From TrEMBL:
It comes from Nocardia terpenica. This is Uncharacterized protein. It comes from the Bacteria.
Amino acid sequence: MQDVVEAIAPLIETRYGGIDPVHEADDQSKLAALAADMEVNGWQGAPLVVAGEQALTGAHRYLAARRADIEIPRVQIDDVCELYGVDWAALEDTYGCCDGYDWYEAARHLDEVLPVAVIDYLGIDVH
């Protein structure tokens, strides 16, 4: 796992916002607990995975970080794919559809093309 963390680290950028969460936070107590922890400890763990400005992971972490007013680390999925020899644009073309959610359909297949350690570290579970 450390190899994955080190390989992805140079791809991470940090911002305060500019991300659209994949869904709303459905567990308000989880959100409040995360925000309180982030106020004390900052961001812990893997960066959010984004496609452009659309988050593929971490809706609760994103919203908690906004509440805690801390910077949010993120990594572009096309950069991660390139690092591991996967063509993100081809995935979008293969699994995309005409409703503007090509990224979501493509993301559902990432576990088929990226190493398990990458999927686990980044918390990619879009099913």
